[in-house]
Write a structure and sequence with these properties.
Length: 168
Amino acid sequence: MPAAYEELTELRGVLARARELSVRTMIFDVEPLVAWWDSGQRALDLGIAAILAELDEVPQLQVLVFSTNSARRPSVPPAAPGVQVRYLASAGKPFRTAPYRGLPKPGAVIGDQVPTDGLLAYRLGFTFLHWNPRLAGVPLGPKIMQLVGRLAQPVIFRKNASPGQTPP
């Protein structure tokens, strides 16, 4: 099954779409979906709690992974009844895929960056739910990545692309 691309602007819409897709695995990018870049520990912990509180939106979910390329970690390992919850710091997205091997399919990667989150979804054969609202105050690095992502998106998610292969 080819990796799919969908663009959404609201978290509620992301969870509703994950339910419609009957995903069994969700990989959530941490910054800025769960907590804003360079925000404190409290923001990270509250963001994780907010996502966990909405899991009833996706009743078939078996595995939830919070994934970030930063080194930040929650105060307490996240947990939810009936769902295996993992937190991957310094994840190395999209290059390292070993931590995601064997995750139940179908799956979705929810993130804001095509070059990291989108390419990870492509490599895993998961749907990329591109969370792309208009945000103010985005740091320079993520802004540049968004520009690169606009160019990369049609190449990575072209109609006849095959998951698990490096795009041209």
